[in-house]
Amino acid sequence: MRVIAIDGPAGSGKSTVAKAVAERLGLPYLDTGAMYRAVAFAVLRSGGDPADEELAANTARSMELEVGLDRVMVNGTDATVEIRGPEVTRSVSLVAANPAVRVELVSRQREWAERRGGGVLEGRDIGTVVFPDAELKVYLTADAAERARRRAQEVTDLDYETVAADLARRDTLDSTREIDPLAEAPDAVMVDTTGLGVDEVVTEIARLLEEKQPS
Ligand code: DC
Predict the structure, then answer these.
(1) Which tens digit of pLDDT belongs to each residue from 25-80?
(2) What domains does the chain contain, in order, with CATH numbers?
(3) pTM score, two decimals?
């Protein structure tokens, strides 16, 4: 099974890079952040509180979830746009810190890859927890100002200061939570994407893969 793990903080360029790497290698792609967002979405939609651990865990276990390349379906509803909205973004760190939610989603992620014979998975804990034996682990970073600038371009309805503050808040929550915090795997290759274009990063990852498989 061929698994490429791409981890890193929000705004490091993970999604764009992971999608491009998957395309170049002809492998399927999975955005695991969208899965945590989908749980937050489903809890909010049921009128529940994302801080309710039991509710969030039950929701994760029972939900029908389909994360496609450009569409996310949650219990038969198209949630593609709403999972990126401010309400979900505000509460997703709480859901991601819930151990029972993580157990369920990690198991779904492993199953997803096993069924497809591998894939490119992006997230926070792919190289450390989900696939510690991944063929290649990349840890993407970029300086905080650049990450906020990128995010602000994506979410056009929020100003730079708001985006930067939210990003800093989520960085802290994601890297200080007790269970599976955002961390670089010891055998991950760190790639700093500050000032680099997507093509340059993808080419670097392709080169790292070739280095691993001398022909
Ligand atoms: O990458 P993103 O912003 O869509 O991630 C949403 C949230 O989910 C973020 O708070 C980090 C968390 N997450 C996680 O804990 N583990 C993953 N594998 C992916 C995302």
Answers:
(1) 999 999 999 999 999 999 999 999 999 999 999 999 999 999 998 899 999 999 99
(2) 2-212 (3.40.50.300)
(3) 0.93
**Most distant CA pair in the chain, distance:** 55
SS3 214: coil
Residues with CB under 6 A from ligand 1: 10, 32-33, 36-37, 92-93, 96, 123-125, 170, 174
Under 8 Å between Cβ of 135 and 158: no
Atom of ligand 1 nearest to the CA of 97: 15
Q: Give the DSSP letter of residue 33.
A: H
Q: CA 58, CA 56: separation in Å to the nearest integer?
A: 6
Quick check: 120 and 29 in contact, CB under 8 A?
Answer: yes
Is the torsion defined by CA of 163, 138, 183, 68 positive or negative? positive
Q: Report CA-CA distances (Å) from 73 to 29, 81, 167, 198.
A: 16, 10, 25, 28
